[in-house]
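input
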Amino acid sequence: MKRPAITQPQLAPVIGVDSHLPAVPAAALLPQAIRARLQAQHDWTPEFAGDGGLFADRAPAGAAVLVPLVRREAGLSLLLTRRTDHLRDHAGQISFPGGRVEPEDDGPVATALRETEEEIGLARRYIDVIGQLPIYSTVTAFQVTPVVALVEPGFTLQLDPVEVAEAFEVPLAFLMDPAHHQHHRFEFAGTERRFLSMPWQGPQREYFIWGATAAMLRNLYRLLATA
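output
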């Protein structure tokens, strides 16, 4: 089956906003609280497992992304990237740094750290890995392991211009408030797809966080909200 092309996801109709759900309390967004919750994952079920490659024409492949939570005075912020417009997969989309597992990688953590350093130049000495979220299956047949880490400030980024157009930060508290979570429905050739978005207005422009990135963040919300 041909993959439904969503080239302008921000134009897909919004069919619901989760303002009825509680935001994650401030105390649960502290670094030590997130670390403890990741280390004691019980009594919760991820909301999104992914599309499972339903629209891909290739065998599943392993991948890993870093969920980098930067320690800022105002609280944790999430470091995200905007992909360049010419990439084959996920062109122009907002994503975590990360990529495909290579044979020399010793597990998903090694993949996430390597890809992060290659894509945005974030040195490993600033990164403290604190846990992982469940694997998420993308429509492009990647089995993605989200690796959660705390990032110490003071780093300097060096973006790979081939893959990354921009790096920016979003307050974690904003993303962990379902009042900012929108549900969309999209129809293509008689097939329906639904996806989640978390649009964020930055200082210069709006960033439309959607798809797999938003789904993995929603899974993080579910984990922290059930602490």
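quick obs: The radius of gyration is 17 Å.
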